[in-house]
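New to this. Explain these tokens.
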Amino acid sequence: MRNRATAIRVVVIVWIVAAVGGDVGLALGPIPPGQASDLASSESLVILVLSVIAWPVFSGVLAALFFTLVVNRLAPPTAEVSADALRGNTRVQTTWIATTLVIVLSLAVYGTVELAIDQPGAGISTTSASLPMPASQDQPLEVQVIAQQWWFTYRYPTYGGIETAQLVLPVNQKIEFHITSLDVIHSFWFFALGVKADAVPLNDNVVTAIPTQVGTYRVQCSELCGLWHGNMTDDTAMVVSTSDFATWIQQQTTLDAPVMKYLPPYSHIYAGSNLPQPGVYAP
């Protein structure tokens, strides 16, 4: 009996150490998607909170499993416990059900509320957008993501609706992504910024984010969209300073000048005669 009691204490102590150590490691370690935008930072916080709450439960289940499979074999109880005693402990059952119910519902409510706050506005637009004035840091800079088999292109209505094969964003500027598709369903995933939204034909899915770290990042399609889906990635997406962005956008405006007359008017969706003609623009 003494050996069994000692084993129980050891298992409990190991579980406490693992639970506390795991939560400290989670709090100190990097949590994806990172801190490259306000949206990514918020998502990282949600993942951290959910993980810190879930880890002690998960490690507790592992400790209970170890106790059942190992401790009971090495140090079995001195007397068999009757079936009535096993089934009739309402205090343990009630405590377990109430605790898990509170944890699961709390995680569900918190995660749902935060997700709803972090992913504002997804909708459908069927009218052409008027070109806004050049954006300030307080006014969102609209950037359209156009998915097609098998690449992404990007339009900047603030600067005449130019279209580029590279995504470049100014740092600390609120970006309003308008995401659509010309053919099948794709999914635009800018992991570092915490942006992930389906690109659906005749749909205008809107996600906002503020890039906060200068750097070069990857964007990719995360929805199976055909034969070359795996090649629909780009490692040249950039977040740059405001001055560098101004220089880049001026260069792109000059480069796009010869093909602008072939591009359809800027719109949140493209259909029928409003579709870009094949071969007019390709990265």
